[in-house]
Amino acid sequence: MIARVLAKIVGTKNERELKRLKPIVEKINSLEPEMQKLSDAELSRKTVEFKERLERGATLDDILPEAFAVVREAARRVLGMRHFDVQIMGGIVLHEGKIAEMKTGEGKTLVATLPAYLNALTGKGVHIVTVNDYLAKRDAEWMGPIYRFLGLTVGYLQNQMSDSERKKAYACDITYGTNSEFGFDYLRDNMKYSLEDMVQRGHYYAIIDEVDSILIDEARTPLIISGPSEESTDLYYYIDEIVRKLKKDIHFTVDEKTKNAFLTEEGIAECERLLGIKNLYNPRYVRLIHHINQALRAHHLFKRDVDYVVKDGKVIIVDEFTGRLMPGRRWSDGLHQAIEAKERLRIEAENQTLAMITIQNYFRMYEKLAGMTGTAETEAAEFKEIYNLDVVVIPTHKPMIRIDYPDVVFRTQKEKFEKVVEEIEKCYKEGRPVLVGTTSIEKNELLSKMLKKRKIPHQVLNAKHHEKEAQIIAQAGRSHTVTIATNMAGRGVDIILGGNPEGLAKAQLEAEGYDLSEIDERAWNEVLAMARQGLDPTTKYKDYWAKVLYEKYLECQKDAEKVKALGGLYIIGTERHESRRIDNQLRGRAGRQGDPGASRFFLSLEDDLLRLFGSEKLKTFMEKLGLPEGEPLEHPWLSKAIEQAQKKVEAYHFEIRKYLLEYDDVMNKQRETIYSQRKEILKSDSIKDWIISMIEEKCEEIVEEAFIENKHFEKENLETLLQRFKEIFAFSPEIDVNFSKKEDLVKELKNSALKRYEEKEKIIGSETLRGLEKYFLLTTIDTLWKEHLLMLDHLKESTGLRGYGQKNPLQEYKKEAFYLFVDLMKRIKEITLSYLFRIEIKETRESSEEIIEELEKEEIDSKKLQYKREDPFKEGEEAASQPIRVQKIGRNDPCPCGSGKKYKKCCGKNLEQGEIRDEMSKM
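Structure tokens predicted for Protein translocase subunit SecA (923 residues):
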């Protein structure tokens, strides 16, 4: 009550905002006469003048009034369209980084030209985001003449474009495209191995058309680039067979404490013999070393029924702390696949996530973000909380006279649809155009069948966006037209009463074989402008196309008068959507620019929303009223109650999106770190300093680990430390000094490693090694980042269940994700150094580019990699995951490993508390 009184005295926040904008609009209007006096060349030169003023220290706000006045005049001359005052207001709101809510038909596409031009003057590039490829192309071509007239470049993105075409589009001052194209280009850029291959040039300013659709509806699904696992699954089986032939302590050694296994000199020679290659540590075979190491770990460090169990043909990890099974979790880095090969199971083919980002986090990268839509106010709280965007409702150019009738509710869907069809038939016979909104394609088809029975011509559209749909929606305002569409169909396209003369004229000219590319765009727009002013353009333009365009304009105007007399476009909603925005979007198709129109929703107690809302009470109420079949219940209170139900559902979905975003924020910080490091590596001519730093850090880590484990460091521990050093640096340093301090040991290890690296540089060549350093570091980052994304996915699944243990899943996820990331950074350094210290290149004449090209192209003979699975499957059986029967194992039962010993004295000897046995007894 107090809020209402205050609002009447001081005005609402929105009213105060509009009041602030009015003086700026008046200043822009005062410049109009001055701009009209300028010649085309003088008006175009204003762009150069504005850029010079910005270089001299002026701000965009300083030049805003004049810049907006220039764009308005350019639009009037080039397109025959002049920005209204409310459109100028919308442009100011967008420039300030806010959301402008403007009703359908208010010319949002034209509004965007104002802030786009102003911000493009900085030279940093402006992105205008649309909901589909067709609108991106249409808007760029439609508004392009304004930008080009003023000396700016404009481009647009399409799905099938090549990288060179994309780079050209991004190099333009203003770029149109869909949210997915912008997002995927960002992800692809961060997978490139050269700065020259990147297409984007930064994220300065974005204007999002239909901002609610993109930032809220589509934000539920992240953008993911995925692909099949790079390695053939056959390679796991092939390596597994080789590892089975290696002998422990002869060909490899095992460190059970650190769960590591590594080949001896004899083992390397044996692997080379079995693989049929000369040098296992040649850079082209680095992937093989990784597979061999993981297979050795799988066979000798991970035990069945201890570290994992096999159930239904799948390897399920056993939690080492609780002994409980963790279905859905997978070991990373190819270890899980190696264990599947060891157990002779089908290796699960899974799409590997290569890169991922949510819509929310992509658009939050922009320095300045703005948006426009016809329906944003209902989601104002979410826009503010997630994106820090304020919503400003811009008044309409002409008063809204659309009639929104109260909802009518029927008992069954059958009754509802019968009434809808009757309503459509009545309007069709009158000649009044009808647009019917449904929530699914199934309902589209049901209505279509019912209309066909009554022989009512109609168009059926679903939510797939393409040019044909836009054309049909644009003509949905013609008399005797019935269009059935999903509630979202036709976003961004105006329904003009009487039809769209441009579309009709182009269709006729194309049908007659006329080449539309020969028509001058500016002349076409001038014909339309003259027609709107009541002038006959054919007195100036004698071309046939001008005659057709003018005739179609007059035809549409005549039809529009007829439709207006019938009450304008009639919107019928067949079901309430969970979100009020979608309903408002459907209603907004009618009543554009002060046109008459009407809308009504026909509902039933069987609709999803009403079932959730509590239809039993309504059903009982309707039965008590004694309403006969087919008689609806209609009351404004009912509409209000339904709206309250929608608000609850909206709040629920908001909480879900917010919760998911909190999870993604964890990954986002890690993504930013990895991508910024990648970019730094690509920008650097040499990363030798990075490598030296990594060597020094790794030496410190090795010594630190040894001293943490053994507070009183003895000489006996030196052997373990040196073995760890050898795993990474591929040699054992000669240490013969009695170390009393760990600092001395660190220094000695650093000197040994750096000395060996300098020797390697002399052998390989400085230039070649610099190229290989970059290649190995980038490859390692990309490979381990992919695995890390997979680990985070599994981590999210597992931490979600910890709520049952009175723990906050999000906090658990943040904590464990941090540890995983720390481990990732360590592994990147370790694996990169391991590769660099092991490379052996006999042909020193080869450049790093030639070697890298070989690495990428050359693979082991594919015939050798084909592993015939003879053992796992019986003859004639299909090679598929076979269920494994898991039986309860008693302490005195024979051990399943086949040793002949009792289980308690064999594999079961490590099970002190019997947790795994307990878990297995449940199976």
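Confidence is low (pLDDT under 50) at residues 858-891, 907-923.
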